[in-house]
Design a protein that fits this description.
Blueprint (H helix, E strand, L loop, with lengths): L5 H21 L7 H17 L23 E3 L9 E2 L2 H15 L5 E8 L2 E8 L2 E7 L5 E3 L2 H4 L16 E9 L2 H13 L8 H9 L4 H5 L4 E7 L27 H4 L8 H10 L9 E4 H15 L7 E8 L2 H7 L9 E5 L4 E13 L5 E12 L2 E7 L3 H6 L7 E5 L7 E5 L24 E2 L8 E2 L6 H12 L11 H9 L14 H5 L6 H14 L4 H7 L7 H11 L2 H6 L2 H5 L6 H12 L1 H13 L14
Parallel strand pairs: 2-11
Antiparallel strand pairs: 1-6, 3-9, 3-10, 4-5, 4-7, 7-8, 10-11, 12-13, 12-15, 13-14, 15-16, 17-18
The chain binds 2-(butylsulfanyl)adenosine.
């Protein structure tokens, strides 16, 4: 195994990142995806941090940290835009609380808890309530003027509701919802343009544009989380000293007389006041006390993270009371009164030990990287999907490579990219096997298809197992207790080879299996018996016809009313069902015309009680 020396690696990375910077910033013609760029830059930063002698003054790392685009006008910040210190563990959050408590004793602080949006910080300046300037954070002192672009964000009010201070600077985050990000990338793909690595990069790339016409197509959003209010020099007192907190919104006139004209004394009241001015403020916020309260908020949000329409990378704890914030003050970079409690990273690096293939229910062959186990977002990952053969080539992942792995929520971990700098001399390319590793049938990839498939059909035990699991699944016949371990045993021992076989199981056979006592055998038999009376829609879904998901199965059941009517339908008849197009209609007919499937269905229909008719569609109220 021959690896380039560290100095050679660093030099190669420097040269590469510098070339990409030039292409991106000067030529406006990016050469690589953001993910590849970020990864190379991070690699260089890591090398230089570990071996400072490798750092050179001209290294691109010496310029990072919001180097403004030279072609966007500079936007100096009258009150610096600070950053936040991070707490990566419970212990670090506890230490933050302890420091705050000690500094404020004997008072006990309350904390305003917010989401930490994964977008980019911007500052919006309103003069007499009218949006005057929008700026990125830049290096905190000088950002980029993106006023025209900010104006295209539909949720940013161009005029605030109600009278406000002569000069009000609102701070918050610009981000892109996940579904808008996915749509954008789909469009980029269609047009052969660069895809964005994640919603944050997409938001940044869309806001930092010279042409606001592009920004307007990109559906950005904004959430306000603070202010840096400046009374007009002629009209009022200078800015408050403490970072971004402790400053008046409005002129101080009594709230009762002037609606949104408020003087607020806390972060939580500030958020309410911003909302009253017509600014979008995130609804997920809470005021809590003590480390227990902080932990509770963090855990509740961590649980709901994947249900949010946008990405967050943690939560933010802020001392609520502005007077207390001022007592705590700020250091050069970040305030002492706030901390970002970050989630464990969802990406990690590890080595590819091998690339295996897995066979899915429809025979789809998925290359899966076998990994040196690594912790990602709190879970140890030792396998990650590579999706398909083309993806393996596109990402250039080889056996022996170091790769970046991502695990998001409940989805299967995936390999994002390889790190070519760390590739050993003996790294091997993946070769798609010609035969199914499970049943030995030929693997075929049809013209124009991305997915290779095992041609063995239900002869292939892997497909059989998946078909059984699907058939028994919660949304299909819902046979509780029929998990993958049991299905493995049933299929491997030849006891059950197809769904109808499940109904022939008895207690004696079941008790002969590993880890199957009398009680679990009886429970399973009861679950199987209960599944005999199922609905038509569940039955149609359980069959596992390609392209027939739950919704289509329901539409089919409602349309035809009985299995016989469904089975007799021609492709034309099927096309009359809402949302059934030619591809689905053809897949259904193909499935029903296959003699093996017909035979299986006949046995099933003889076993299952008359399928209950689907309920009539709900009437509109
Ligand atoms: S407050 C002085 N609140 O996190 C306080 N920041 O690491 C400055 N961010 O640059 C920021 N959500 O882009 C604050 N609810 C939130 C936030 C938030 C996301 C970002 C912001 C900032 C970075 C600091």
């Amino acid at each position: 195994m021959t690896r380039p020396s560290l100095a050679q690696q660093a030099a190669a990375l420097r040269e590469r990142v510098a070339r990409w910077d030039h292409a991106y910033y000067v030529l406006d013609a990016p050469e690589v995806s953001d993910a590849v760029y970020d990864q190379a830059l991070r690699e260089l930063q890591r090398l230089e941090a570990e071996h400072p002698q490798l750092r050179t003054p001209d290294s691109p790392t010496q310029r990072v940290g919001g180097a403004p685009r030279a072609d966007l006008p500079p936007a100096p910040h009258a009150v610096p835009m600070l950053s936040l210190n991070n707490a990566l563990t419970d212990a670090e959050a506890e230490a933050f609380d302890a420091r705050v408590q000690a500094a404020l004793a004997p008072a006990t602080p309350r904390y305003c808890c917010e989401l930490k949006f994964d977008g980019l910080a911007v500052s919006l300046r309103y003069r007499d309530g009218v949006l005057e300037r929008g700026a990125t954070r830049g290096d905190g002192a000088i950002g980029e003027d993106v006023t025209a672009n900010v104006r295209t964000i539909r949720t940013v009010p161009l005029r605030l509701q109600g009278a406000v201070a002569p000069l009000l600077e609102v701070r918050g985050e610009v981000l892109m919802f996940r579904r808008d990000f996915e749509r954008l990338n789909a469009r980029q793909r269609e047009q052969g343009a660069r895809e964005f690595a994640n919603p944050r990069n997409a938001a940044a790339g869309s806001l930092r544009q010279l042409d606001a016409g592009i920004t307007t197509q990109r559906r950005l959003r904004f959430f306000a989380y603070g202010v840096a209010a400046l009374e007009d020099v002629d009209a009022g007192p200078p800015p408050a000293p403490a970072g971004e907190g402790g400053v008046p919104v409005g002129t101080g006139a009594p709230a009762a007389e002037s609606g949104s004209l408020l003087t607020v004394g806390s972060q939580s009241a500030l958020l309410d006041a911003l909302q009253a001015l017509g600014l979008p403020v995130c609804e997920h916020r809470a005021v809590v006390e003590g480390i227990g309260g902080l932990r509770g908020f963090f855990e509740a949000i961590a649980q709901r993270r994947d249900q949010l329409p946008y990405e967050i990378d943690g939560v933010v704890f802020k001392v609520d009371d502005f007077a207390q914030q001022r007592r705590l003050g700020a250091l050069a970079r970040a305030p002492r009164w706030a901390v970002a409690r970050k989630f464990a990273p969802r990406e990690a690096r590890t080595r590819v030990l091998g690339i295996d293939v897995q066979v899915g229910r429809t025979g789809a062959i998925t290359p899966v990287a076998r990994l040196e186990p690594v912790e990602v977002g709190g879970v140890v990952v030792s396998n990650a999907s590579l999706h398909n053969e083309d993806e393996v080539r596109r990402k250039d992942v080889r056996i022996g490579d170091t790769v970046v792995v991502r695990r998001a929520g409940d989805v299967i971990p995936e390999v994002l990219a390889s790190v070519p700098e760390l590739r050993p001399g003996d790294a091997r390319e993946f070769v798609m096997p010609r035969r199914c590793p499970v049943c030995g049938s030929a693997i075929v990839r049809e013209e124009g298809e991305v997915i290779a498939r095992c041609s063995g059909g239900l002869v292939c035990p892997a497909q059989r197992k998946q078909a059984l699991l699907h058939f028994a699944g919660r949304r299909a016949l819902d046979i509780d207790g029929l998990g993958d371990k049991l299905v493995d045993q049933l299929v491997d021992s030849g006891i059950v080879s197809h769904p109808a076989g499940l109904f022939a199981l008895d207690a004696v056979v079941l008790q002969g299996l590993d880890r199957m006592g009398e009680r679990s055998a009886l429970n399973l038999l009861a679950a199987i018996a209960a599944a005999r009376s199922t609905s038509l829609e569940r039955f149609l879904y359980a069959l596992g016809i390609r392209h027939v998901g739950e919704t289509t199965a329901r539409d089919l059941a409602r349309h035809f009313g009985s299995y016989a009517a469904f089975a007799a339908a021609s492709e034309d008849d099927l096309l009359k069902v809402p949302d059934v197009g030619p591809v689905v209609a053809q897949a259904i007919r193909k499935f029903l015309d296959e003699p093996r499937n017909r035979a299986e269905i006949d046995v099933l229909l003889a076993t299952l009680h008359p399928l209950s008719a689907p309920p009539p569609p709900a009437r509109a109220q």
